[in-house]
């Protein structure tokens, strides 16, 4: 796929007598079955295969976007095309609140296209956060927390050992892993009622836009200007829960866990990990979350809590490894 020239970026399949060019979807490493399971179907009819494999509603809906000549708006799969509910040529955030009861269905049906979030060009620019700003901003802050926490620990306890410091940081990382799962499952994926417009807006800005636009790079990492509120919230809670002697170390660990989460989330969307690696396993799970069942596989940096809370998907055994 990578060897194709700019002019020949085409991977066509026939579905219900229409032609679809799914090159971008495959080349962006997002197909849960990988390129190698699909490449034998190039220029062939996939209708029976799609029915046999029982693709999700989200997957069938996404396929509409790649119809040659423009988006497929038919009802061949017994589902309406909901994209007429919004004007994609206009900023999207100002429109979602008007979707009402249709929002819940609309937001869980992904599309692949360019979009503008805000009408104000300056605010729109702020949504474009380079990935490297995450470690550049947050790692020094985590180090400062550790150093200050170490000083505070020694002053309060008189203990100069580094072991409690290290254990507190590790505990913070573990605590983030649990928080990541809880936030993703019960906050990011709460079901907004169509009754309150501000709730719809909050849901879309928080996480809905990532499921609606999973290929938009701006939705792959959490912008620091918004993450600062979560960090402050965690610090306020930690100061109540943990002794003053270790609170900064635990917070530093949680912050390091968050950085790791953000970088893993970016990687599993953007890259093609090697078969058998931990990141390969995480990418398979996260693709299932986006394109098979958005109510499962909530852990991004780990699958541990999904197993504990029975929200994991049993990945099928493969005859040959997936090549993303």
Key terms:
mainly alpha, globular, lipid metabolism, two-stranded antiparallel ribbon, Flavocytochrome B2, Chain A, domain 1, 12 helices, transmembrane, 324 residues, single chain, 49% helix, fatty acid 2-hydroxylase activity
Short account of what is shown:
This protein has twelve helices and two strands, in the order E-E-H-H-H-H-H-H-H-H-H-H-H-H.
Helix percent band: 40-55%
The backbone outline, from C-alpha atoms, is: globular
Strand order of the largest sheet: 1-2
* Unreliable sequence segments: 1-7
User: Largest sheet, if any?
Assistant: 2 strands, antiparallel
Summed over residues and divided by their number, the pLDDT gives a mean of 90
Run of helices and strands:
EEHHHHHHHHHHHH
Span of the ends, CA to CA: 11 Å
Q: C-alpha Rg, in Å?
A: 22 Å
Judged by helices, strands and strand pairing, the structural class is mainly alpha
Strand content: under 5%
Number of helices: 12
Number of strands: 2
How is this structure best described in words?
The protein is mainly alpha-helical and 324 residues long. Among the domains are: 1-80, Flavocytochrome B2, Chain A, domain 1 (Roll); 123-267, no CATH class. The chain contains twelve helices and two strands, in the order E-E-H-H-H-H-H-H-H-H-H-H-H-H. It has helices at 23-27, 47-53, 57-63, 103-107, 121-126, 133-157, 163-188, 197-212, 224-241, 247-270, 278-291, 304-308; strands spanning 12-15, 18-21. The longest helix has 26 residues, at 163-188. The radius of gyration is 22 Å and the shape is globular.
């Amino acid at each position: 796929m990578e060897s194709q020239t700019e002019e020949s970026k085409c991977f066509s399949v026939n579905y219900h007598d229409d032609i679809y060019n799914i090159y971008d979807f495959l080349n962006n490493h997002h197909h849960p079955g990988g390129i190698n399971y699909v490449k034998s179907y190039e220029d062939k009819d996939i209708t029976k295969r799609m029915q046999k494999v029982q693709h999700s509603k989200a997957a069938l809906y996404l396929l509409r976007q790649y119809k040659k000549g423009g988006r497929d708006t038919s009802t061949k799969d017994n589902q309406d095309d909901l994209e007429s509910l919004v004007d994609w040529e206009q900023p999207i955030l100002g429109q979602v609140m008007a979707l009402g009861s249709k929002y819940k269905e609309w937001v869980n049906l992904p599309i692949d296209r360019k979009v503008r979030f805000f009408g104000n060009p300056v605010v729109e620019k702020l949504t474009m956060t380079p990935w490297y700003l995450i470690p550049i901003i947050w790692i020094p802050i985590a180090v400062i927390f550790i150093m200050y926490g170490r000083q505070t620990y020694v002053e309060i306890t008189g203990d100069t050992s580094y072991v409690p410091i290290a254990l507190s940081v590790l505990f913070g990382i573990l605590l983030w892993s649990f928080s990541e799962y809880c936030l993703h499952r019960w906050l990011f994926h709460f079901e907004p009622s169509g009754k309150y417009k501000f709730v719809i807006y909050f849901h879309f800005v928080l996480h809905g836009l990532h499921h609606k636009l999973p290929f938009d790079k701006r939705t792959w990492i959490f912008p620091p200007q918004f993450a600062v509120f979560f960090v402050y919230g965690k610090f306020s809670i930690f100061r109540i829960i943990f002794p003053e002697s270790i609170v900064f170390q635990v917070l530093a660990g949680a912050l390091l866990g968050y950085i790791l989460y953000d970088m893993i989330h970016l990687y599993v969307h953007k890259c093609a990990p090697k078969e058998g690696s931990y990141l390969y396993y995480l990418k398979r799970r996260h693709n299932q979350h986006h394109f098979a069942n958005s109510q499962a596989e909530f852990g991004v940096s780990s699958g541990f809590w999904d197993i504990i809370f029975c929200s994991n998907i049993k990945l099928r055994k493969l005859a040959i490894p997936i090549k993303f």
